[in-house]
Design a protein that fits this description.
The complex is a heterodimer of chains A (208) and B (320). Chain A is an alpha/beta fold and 208 residues long. Chain A contains 10 helices and 11 strands. In chain A, 37% of the residues lie in helices and 28% in strands. In chain A, the strands form 2 sheets. In chain A, strands 2-3-1-4-11-5 form a 6-stranded mixed β-sheet, with helices on both faces. A 5-stranded mixed β-sheet of chain A has the order 8-7-9-6-10. Chain B is an alpha+beta fold and 320 residues long. In chain B, helix 1 (14-33) packs antiparallel against helix 4. The two termini of chain B are 39 Å apart. The A-B interface holds A 58-61, 77, 79-85, 183, 187-190, 192-193, 195-196, 199, 202 and B 110, 112-113, 155, 157, 188-192, 215, 217-218, 253, 255, 271, 273-275, 277-280.
Chain lengths: 208, 320
């Protein structure tokens, strides 16, 4: 395992990921003690934003990585192996609108097109294409719940774990698009050249 | 304002050109010594001609019209043009044909490191020599070319595109499900593959086999110790291994999870890996059904090295 470099996502998946790596026998104490440092050579860990994990893994700058299925769906063009569904970090990608009358379906019925705000433009575009509806996708970088409240869009496509943020902003789930959990991904070349280390890790993963 | 060039293309200046030229000359000497004569075909082809080959995954990205309104395409690889060349210029030749090429191909990829839309390929095609002899010869020439290029830490992945489909057929998976499973395997999505397999309602040991096989990769020992069905589909790979010189065999990673990256591959498939570069440096395989679509059916095998990636890997190895 010593020759592997693993990309670890900071943010919602960080704690569970470090717990998992502990159980696999990696020493994550330095990572836990230090939230500014990014590269932990002794442990073979690099930390980054979840959405950067596929970038590092596809390029071979990290051999393995852990990130959410939502990130992988949004970056489906990245050539990485998706090895294991780790099960934690369970969230749902949903279409949500303001409670009460569904403004999104009203827009579709009367205007033929609905405006959707999202941080996941590819997932949102694909969802509406796959369901044969016309959508104008508005990409925002944060607090997507604001969009339907201010009239920027009729609906949002976003990731929700408990639904609390949606509820607090008066939004309700209209459609569930996908269930997203943490995934272990691998660089395809590393998967061949470092087969022994990777398989060793996968075996321990199945055992814990 | 600077005059721009299309995304995914680039100008090459003398320092890089000297290195590239020296690199391709070393590779060319290997090809020539092995009896592969260099050919060149037009960068432009009639779309209707190339469509005779299976274009599913290498379909040309750039189309244009000539003065008669014919649709022309920029070739996306050299294998299809050479298949066309063989059927027109060597229509009834029964003896083996050996060709090499150093030519640009064009694909509509998302430009990134080692991914250009115009890229130089160095490759060979061996026509008229079936498996296992032809496959072993191609692997041997590939190994010599990589050595001559100066690469030290490379490995050659060797699998069989017919292996997993044969396995699926044998356990009675229907055609639509086979295609779904193969698609997930090509994408490298083992989570979705497992999901699909579990949905097939197979006996436990069959599911387990389908799940396990794509992860099997390593030295020649991975080809042994199987019984029944898997043993049979592995005979082809074992026969090739038996023909390889030890110094070639030691570079090979036997990989049961390697599937066809290009639609026309029928048997053996190769990929070249180097720890200095995160993506494969070259690939190849057997395409025994392709020549028949252009003319006389002949078994064939070939590979292409991406010269730009080879150069990146060489530079990377200097730093390792």
């Amino acid at each position: 395992v010593n020759d592997l470099r693993i990309a670890v996502p900071r943010g919602a998946l960080f704690g569970d990921t470090l717990d998992l790596l502990d159980r696999l026998g990696l020493d994550t104490s330095e990572v836990r003690d230090n939230d500014r440092k990014l590269l932990f050579d002794a442990a073979g860990i690099v930390t980054m934003r979840p959405s950067d994990v596929p970038t590092y893994v596809a390029a071979g700058a990290a051999d393995l990585g852990i990130t959410g299925k939502d990130v992988l769906m949004e970056q489906s063009e990245r050539e990485v192996y998706e090895l294991v569904d780790l099960g934690y970090g369970r969230c749902t990608m949903v279409l949500a609108t303001v409670a009460g009358q569904d403004r999104a379906s009203e827009a579709l019925r009367r205007l033929g097109v609905v405006r959707i705000a999202t941080k996941y433009p590819k997932i949102a575009t694909r969802h509406f294409e796959d369901t044969g509806r016309q959508a104008e996708i508005v990409e925002v970088k944060g607090s997507v719940e604001l969009a339907p409240l201010t009239g920027l869009a009729e609906g949002i496509v976003d990731l929700t774990a408990t639904g609390t943020t949606l509820r607090e902003n008066g939004l309700v789930v209209r459609e569930e698009i996908a269930t997203c959990t943490a995934r272990l991904i691998a660089n395809p070349v590393a998967h061949k050249l470092k087969a022994r280390s990777i398989d060793f890790l996968l075996e321990r993963l199945r055992a814990v | 304002m600077t005059d721009r060039i299309p995304s995914g293309t680039r100008d090459v200046l003398p320092d890089e050109m000297r290195e590239l030229r020296a690199l391709t000359e070393r590779v060319r000497a290997v090809f020539e010594r092995a009896g592969y004569g260099e050919v060149y075909t037009p960068a432009l082809e009639y779309e209707s001609q190339l469509q005779r080959g299976d274009l599913s995954s290498t379909s040309p990205a750039y189309r244009m019209f000539d003065e008669q309104g014919n649709v022309l395409v920029l070739r996306s690889d050299m294998t299809l043009p050479i298949a066309r060349l063989v059927s027109t210029r060597y229509p009834s030749d029964g003896s083996p044909l050996r060709f090499c090429y150093f030519a640009h191909a064009y694909r509509g990829v998302r430009p990134q490191r080692g991914q250009s839309r115009e890229f130089l390929q160095a490759g060979v095609e061996l026509i008229g020599v079936p498996a296992p002899e032809g496959t072993a010869e191609a692997l041997t020439v590939l190994k010599s070319a990589l050595d001559a290029a100066g690469l030290r830490t490379y490995s050659i992945g060797f699998g069989d595109a017919s292996l997993y489909p044969a396995l699926l057929e044998a356990v009675g998976v229907d055609q639509p499900a086979q295609e779904r499973l193969l698609l997930e395997l090509v994408r490298g999505n083992f989570v979705a593959l497992e999901h699909e397999i579990n949905g097939l309602g197979l006996a436990d040991e069959q599911s387990e086999l389908l799940l396990r096989v794509p992860h099997i990769r390593g030295g020649p020992e991975v080809l042994d110790g199987f019984s029944g069905l898997l043993q049979e589909v592995l005979i082809g790979m074992r026969d090739v291994h038996a023909l390889l010189e030890p110094e070639v065999a030691e570079r090979v990673i036997f990989d049961l999870g390697l599937v066809r990256s290009i639609g026309y591959y029928t048997g053996a498939v190769f990929q070249v890996y180097d720890p200095a570069h995160g993506v494969p440096i070259g690939s190849g395989g057997r395409y025994d059904d392709l020549l028949g679509r252009f003319g006389k059916p002949r078994p064939a095998v070939g590979f292409a090295l991406n010269v730009e990636r080879l150069h990146i890997a060489l530079t990377g190895e200097e730093r390792l």
